[in-house]
Amino acid sequence: MSNESKYIKAFLAEAEENLQDMNRALLEMEKDPGRRELIDEMFRHAHTIKGGAASVGNEDISKLAHEMENLMDRLRSQNIEPDSSVTGILFETLDLLETLVGNAAKKKKKKIEIIPLIDRLKAISLATPPLKPEKNTLIKREYNIQIKVRLKDDCVFKSVRAAMVMKNLVKIGEIVNTAPEVRDIEDEKFDLSFTVFFATEENEEKIRKAVGSVSEIDSVEVLTLSRPSLKTPTLSKAQTVRVDIGRLDKLMNLVGELVIDKIRLTRIGSIHEIPELTETIVHLDRLITDVQDEVMQARLVPVDLIFNRFPRMVRDLAKAGNKKIELIVEGTEIEVDRTILDKISDPMIHLLRNAVDHGIEPAAERKKAGKPETGRIKLTASREKEHVVLEVSDDGKGIDSDRVLDMAIKEGIVTPEEGVKLNDKEKLMLIYAPGLSTSEETTDVSGRGVGMDVVKTTLESIGGTVAINSDKDSGTKVTLKLPLSLAIARGLLFMVREETFIVPLANVQEIISIRADDIKTIKGQEAISLRGEVVPLIRLAKILELSSNEDPKSEFDALVVEVGGKRAGLVVDCLIGQQETVIKSLDGYLKGVKGYAGATILGDGKVAFILDVPSLI
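The chain above was modelled as a monomer; its predicted structure follows.
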C-alpha cells in the first residue's frame, strides 16, 4: 500500500468517527440548543474533517465541511439562533458528508452536487453581520493543569493536530482556556507551540498519553498547579491502534490451527505418557489458550459501534411518521466480535424501523388510550454467560396474534384448520414466516413486511437466536441472543453409528436417558413428556441418512436442544464429551446442505461435522 493510500485510509476512518460524534452532538443540541459545548464540539469536528480532506485532496468534502464550520462559528458567536431550520440544514449537511465519505471509501467516482447545499449554508451564515471576535479575558473557571504542546518542525497541518490534541483532552477533563486563543489556533495563527489550561482529576501519565497519541507531536510539558475547587467529571479512554479486520481474521485462522494442533498433541501425550512431553504439552496448552484469549479479545468491539447510528435514524423516522418517540440506549459498552456485529446491523435496523412504524402509535392515538404522547423505544445490550443479549422493546400497541394468524392463512402459510389449534404464542411465531406482513399498507419506513424471516435466518446463521414477546396494547420486546465468536466455540461430541458429530454447547439444555416405552407418537412424530412438556424426538441416524445394522435399543441417550424457544431431543448412540471446536465453513457440494453448520478436526486428525441445530428442529 502506497503512503498516499495509507493517508487516505486514515483520513476516511477518522472522518467516519467525527461524523458519528457530530450526529450525536447535533441530536443533543436539537434537544438543548443552548449548550455551548455541543456547538464547540461540532465546530472542532467540522474543522478536523475540512483539514483532513484538504490534506488528501478531496475538495468536495473540504468545501462542504468548511461551510459547515463557518455556520458553527456563527452559532458560537451567537449571531444565529440554533432553531429547527439551522439544525435541519446541519443534519442535511451531515448526511451529504457521510455520502461523500462513503463514496470515497468505496472509490466511487460519481459526481455529487454540493453547490446548492453550500449556497444554503452561506445564506444562513451571512444572514446577519458577524460580530468581532472577543479577545481573551481573565480566566473565570479554575484549572489545575497547564499543558504546553510543541509540534514537530515539519508538521504540515498544525491546526488539525492541535484540534486532535484538544479532542483527546476533552475526553478526560475540561479545557478552560488556550494561548493563543482557540480561534487563532484553528486559523493556524501560531508557530509550533500552544498552551492549554486544563481542569481534570486524571494523573499526568494519562494527560501525556492523551496528547502523545496524536502524531507529529515533538514535546509535551505538563505543569501541575493547585487542584480545582469543583470536581470535574472525567472519562478515561484506553490507548488504541487501528487494525484492519482482515488481519484479525487471518490471525484468528492461525490461532484456530494452533488450537487444533493443541488438541492433537494433548491426545498424543495421553497415549504415550512421556513426562517431558506431558510437561511441554501442558505449558504449550496454557500459552495457546492465552494467545487465543488475547486474539478473541482484540476482535471484540463495543456494540456502540452500531448503536450510535440508531438515535439519528429513529429521530428521522419519527419525524417522517409525525410521531413523538424517545429512544433509550443502555449497555453500549458491552463487547462482541466485530464480524458478528457487522452481520446483525441490518436485523437491528429492521427491528427499530418496525418499532417506529408498527409499534409506536401517533400521539393522538396514544393520548386517547391513556398513554403518554411520547412513545418509548428501548435498546439494551447485556452479557449472559457465553452470549451477548440485545433487546429492542417498545411501549406501543403490541402485536395482535389473531391478526398474524389471519394474514398467515391469507398467504397460505397455514390452513384455517391448523390455525384453530394454535395458541397465542404459536400464532405469534408465524410472524417469522417469509413474506408475512401485518401492515395495512406499504410505507417508506417498514417496506413490504419482508424482514422478520431475514432477522431469524441471519441470527441462526451465526449460531444465535431470536425471540419475540408482545402484549396487545402494551408493547413488544424482541430478544437477540448472540455468540461471542464465530471461529471457536465449545461443543459436545457424540457418535451416531460410526460417525462423530458435534453440537454447539450453547444449544444444549440437558442430556437425558430415555426408555423405549417412554416414547409416544403424536401426529406421526415421536415425542416424550419431559417434566410435563411434550418434546419431539429426532432420530439423527435417520435424518442424516446413516446406515444401521444394529438392533433397536431399549434405552438410549438424547440431547435436549433449544433454539428460539423451540425444543427437541436428538437421539445419539454414544456421548464422548466436551471439546473446544474450531469451526471450519463447508465449501463445494457440502455448502448449504441441510443439517450441517461446518466441520472441525479432532485430536486424532479425523474430521467431524458440526450440526446446524436450527435446521434440524
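The chain has five domains: 3-125, 145-224, 246-299, 313-399+438-483, 488-616.
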